[in-house]
Amino acid sequence: MEHVVPPEAAALLARARRVVVVTGAGISAESGVPTFRDALTGLWQRFDAQALATPQAFEDDPDLVWGWYEWRRSTVRRARPNAGHTAVAAIEARLPGTVLVTQNVDDLHERAGSRDPVHLHGSLLAPRCSGCSRPAPLPDVADEPAEGRRVPPPRCAGCAARVRPGVVWFGEALPQAALDRAVEAAASCDLLVTVGTSGLVYPAAEIPRVAARLGATVIQVNPDETPLDAVAEVNLRGPAARVLPALVAAAWGDTMPA
Ligand code: APR
């Protein structure tokens, strides 16, 4: 069933000139990649973030942490981009100056055709040395672990320290260049579309607020209420893979590939 988009949302996108799209785990949910905070299914409902997503956790039990991220990487590898990712790529194609800022560590945006997403929280596909930060090769697919299996992380070819996942852990700083790009884009856009984020994790959650403070209009796409409801001029309630293609079609009359 086609998602009905209010005409004012379509008009906002149709007349926008400088667009920023901010995405969170919700945009990959319909591809089978679990979010973090959704009841029951969210990763942080099932696993302890402190025991898995902090530098201390890696220090204490590197095999548990590495195994868990390799399991997540295998989930992402088996997933496919959905119509939400495709719609974002369509907005970028239509408005070449569009900046895509994602909190996601998967590569579904890239696989959907987005050329240069700004990954604020790193990537599952960019492991590096925990000692010298030298990029490390991705382990073979054949070695993908089952959920909960401990896997010793490989060693750095340069300094032999442990290789770590290329993601930003709690308590770690975001990559400065990525954060600067996201803030700059938000500060100069006229429309920001935020999709599938709970808006609870900072500094990423500040990006839509920067845009709104500086006069841009914010559209939120989320089946549920979030703290960003108050920042958004338009709240589109529904799943990204249905709402975003409908928004693009309503704005430009392009029917999205199914
Ligand atoms: N379409 C759109 N939104 C959805 C969908 C969907 N199909 N399914 C769920 N959502 C929404 C949920 O309602 C929720 O508001 O996506 C949001 C997911 O929120 P989180 O799980 O908190 O994910 P996110 O906001 O991306 O988390 C931010 O927290 O754990 C850290 O580093 C991790 O990048 C992550 C950050």
From TrEMBL:
Residues 1-258 form the Deacetylase sirtuin-type domain. Its EC number is 2.3.1.286. NAD(+) binds at Q103, N104, V105, D106, G196, T197, S198, N222, P223, D224, A240. InterPro entries: DHS-like_NAD/FAD-binding_dom (IPR029035), NAD-dep_sirtuin_deacylases (IPR050134), Sirtuin (IPR003000), Sirtuin_cat_small_dom_sf (IPR026591), Sirtuin_class_III (IPR027546), Ssirtuin_cat_dom (IPR026590). It catalyses: N(6)-succinyl-L-lysyl-[protein] + NAD(+) + H2O = 2''-O-succinyl-ADP-D-ribose + nicotinamide + L-lysyl-[protein]; N(6)-acetyl-L-lysyl-[protein] + NAD(+) + H2O = 2''-O-acetyl-ADP-D-ribose + nicotinamide + L-lysyl-[protein]. Substrate binds at Y69, R72. Zn(2+) binds at C129, C132, C156, C159. Keywords: Cytoplasm, Metal-binding, NAD, Transferase, Zinc. Its main location: cytoplasm. Binds 1 zinc ion per subunit. 2 residues (Tyr-69 and Arg-72) present in a large hydrophobic pocket are probably involved in substrate specificity. They are important for desuccinylation activity, but dispensable for deacetylation activity. NAD-dependent lysine deacetylase and desuccinylase that specifically removes acetyl and succinyl groups on target proteins. Modulates the activities of several proteins which are inactive in their acylated form. This is NAD-dependent protein deacylase. It comes from Micromonospora rosaria. The lineage of its organism: Bacteria, Bacillati, Actinomycetota, Actinomycetes, Micromonosporales.
